[in-house]
Every structure is written in C-alpha cells, then in structure tokens.
Specification:
The chain is mainly beta. About 5% of the residues lie in helices and about 50% in strands. It has one helix at about 110; strands at about 1-5, 10-15, 20-25, 35-40, 45-50, 55-60, 65-70, 75-80, 90-100, 120, 125-130. The longest helix has 4 residues, at about 110. The chain is globular. The N and C termini lie far apart (about 40 Å).
C-alpha cells in the first residue's frame, strides 16, 4: 500500500498563487508515476499533470504556463506550483500515485480514478475568488 497526504490548499484571490505538496509513504518503490488531479463541484475528476520516475512531466494543455509539477527533495514528494489562479481552478486537488507508468500519459487520465493500481490522497481544497 501507498499513503498520500496533500497539503497547501487554501483560499486566494484571482491572480494569486498556491503551492501544493504531496508526501508519500509505504511501498513507494512500486510507484512509477505521480501526479495531481482535481475535481470541481459537479464535475468529473480531471488530470492536472503527472511526473514519471524518470522526471518526464506532462501538464494538462489548458493549464500549461500556469501550473508546474516537480519533485521535492526525494522521488516520493510531489509539488504543484500554481500561478495566475482563476476562479475556474477552484476544486479539490488530489495527489495520485500509480504503479503503471501509462497513467503518466494524458490519454489514460480518465481511467485513473477507477483503477486498482492507482492510489489517491484525501485531497486538499483550493478556492479562488474573483
């Protein structure tokens, strides 16, 4: 099992920035891909971006230039840096860890939520006011 704990959410005004962190523990040697997803009220969970064990990053096309994913210190700690936040960015942000590297490809993001080899944190709330 892998445990994921997110932190860093909060409320900001439009145009502001936030830095989310995800700490992983447990059987992390099995993980080949980590990433961030988000879910707005009444909407499906969507991929924000992922980073593979080799450092390859993939960012949601519509968030490029504003969101960046990186590792912090170790391979098992993940950062999501968000700038120029918009009210549409409001939602619960979830850290994801997957055994299968295919989930680092955006084509597989829609299937990540229900896959048994994907782990999720409890989420951290981001609220952006206009």
């Amino acid at each position: 099992q892998v445990q994921l704990v997110e932190s860093g959410g909060g409320s900001v005004q439009a145009g502001g920035s936030l830095r989310l962190s995800c700490a992983s523990s447990g059987y992390t040697d099995s993980i080949t891909c980590m990433g961030w997803f988000r879910q707005a009220p009444g909407k499906e969970r969507e991929g924000v971006g992922t980073i593979a064990r080799d450092g390859t990053t993939t960012i949601n096309y519509f968030m490029k230039g504003r969101f960046n994913i990186s590792r912090h210190n170790t391979e098992n700690s993940l950062i999501l840096q968000m700038v120029s936040l918009e009210p549409e960015d409001t939602g619960m942000y979830y850290c994801m860890a997957a055994k299968d590297r295919k989930f680092c490809y955006s084509a597989w993001w829609e299937l990540a939520a229900g896959h048994d080899s994907v782990y999720w944190g409890q989420g951290t709330q981001v609220t952006v006011s206009s």
